[in-house]
Each structure stands twice: as structure tokens, then as C-alpha cells.
Amino acid sequence: MKLLSAEFVASAAEPAQFPAGDLPEIAFAGRSNVGKSSLLNALLGRKNLARVSQTPGRTRLLTFFRVTLASRGAKGSPEKFLFVNLPMIEGYLSSRSPLRGVVLLTDIRRGEDDEVNVVRWLGEQGLGLVAVAMKIDKLPRGQRLQALRDLETFLGVPVIGCSAVTDAGQDLVWKAIRGLLARPRRVAVSHNRISM
Fold first, then answer.
1. Which of 5, 29, 138, 185 has the most CB within a 10 Å radius?
2. How far is CA 96 from each of CA 6, 46, 61, 129, 188, rounded to the nearest angstrom?
3. Neighbour tally for 1: CB within 10 Å
4. Among 100, 98, 89, 81, which Cα is nearest to 12's?
């Protein structure tokens, strides 16, 4: 996989401000300070594309980034899509038709009940999900595998261990994102609420 470009498109507080067009979208969600912006920057090979804050809860707007990858085939055109960095915005998740799936970030050192609710809700919405345990570099190597197994049991889905600092697991995250992009566009949308 070769990244051709990554660029900021827009920040939005409401649907009227969302970018027009129908490029597939992959949302990055998770609680405050879990590492959404850090992972975006690491995956896109840019230090400051997504703003990283030491203050929890700083991400208040949905931020859209256009990503262009080289085609998989020799003569194909480049693959374009959007990454969306979000605070958990239920309206966006339930109604945005270009959305193909969600990369849900959690801290490898602790799962939260609200993350279980999000996993369940995303399944009800028919959205693809990639669960990523961030900050694996904070645990000794001998504890990582068990921590991942514990999180998988807790969330009820497979979990990829990842670090934005050491690059560990980023290739697996990219592979999972490519799988989300291959999903068909959503048709029906439910209006059940996420219980958090």
C-alpha cells in the first residue's frame, strides 16, 4: 500500500457543514485522550495533520481528511476516501450514508462499559467495526497478549493491538481499514440511540 496524499478537508459542528460528495468515509471514534489524532497522524505519516492535545475532550468538531492511496492494480486509478476524526457524534454515525465503518479506539489498559454499548450499537446499525487497543507500548511485551485477550472477551469482538509511537500494529489497522472500505454503501438507517 502506498499513500499518495493526505490533506485536511473541513471541520464541522453540524451536518450542513459536512463535505459534499460521496467518497467512502471511515470514522475514528473513542473516548477522550485515547489517541485518535495520534493514530491518524501515524497512519498518514504526518506529525500534525490531526491536532493532538494533552487536554482530554479537546476534539469537539468532526474533522475530515482526504486520503489518496495508489491503486492496487497496475493501471487502476488512485483510491480516494475520507478519514473522520470524531468525538462520539451519534447523528453522524446513524445518518451519514458514505460511512463504511468505524475504527473504535480503546486503551489497552482498560475497557469501558460505554465501549461495549458502542460495539453493540454499531452492529445494530450495520456498520463495519475495527476495534483497536491503543498504547500497547505502555505495557511490557509479556502482558500485551493477555491484555488483548481480556479486551476481546470484554468487547465481544476481535481487537488489534496498536501504538502510534512505535508503529506496532499499524499495518494490521490499515488492512482492516481496507476491508471496511470494501463494504457496500448503507441503505437503511435505524434511529436507536447509543446508551452511554
1. 29
2. 21, 27, 15, 15, 11
3. 11
4. 89
For 3-14+22-181, the fitting CATH number among 3.20.20.70, 3.40.50.620, 3.40.50.300, 3.30.1330.30 is: 3.40.50.300
Question: pLDDT (tens digit, 0 to 9) for every residue of the chain, 196 residues total?
Answer: 799 999 999 999 888 999 998 899 999 999 888 999 999 999 999 888 987 765 555 557 899 999 999 987 667 789 999 999 988 778 889 888 899 999 999 999 887 888 999 999 999 888 999 999 999 999 999 999 999 999 999 999 999 999 999 989 999 999 999 999 999 877 645 556 665 4
**Cβ-contact 27, 81 below 8 angstroms:** no
∠ CA 84-171-160 to the nearest 5 degrees? 75
Region label for 113, one of left (φ > 0), alpha (ψ between -120 and 50) or beta (otherwise): alpha
Residue 50 has which C-alpha cell? 490531526
How far apart are the C-alpha atoms of 176 and 65, rounded to whole Å? 18
DSSP per-residue string spanning 114-147: HHHHHHHHHHHHT-EEEEEEE-GGGS-HHHHHHH
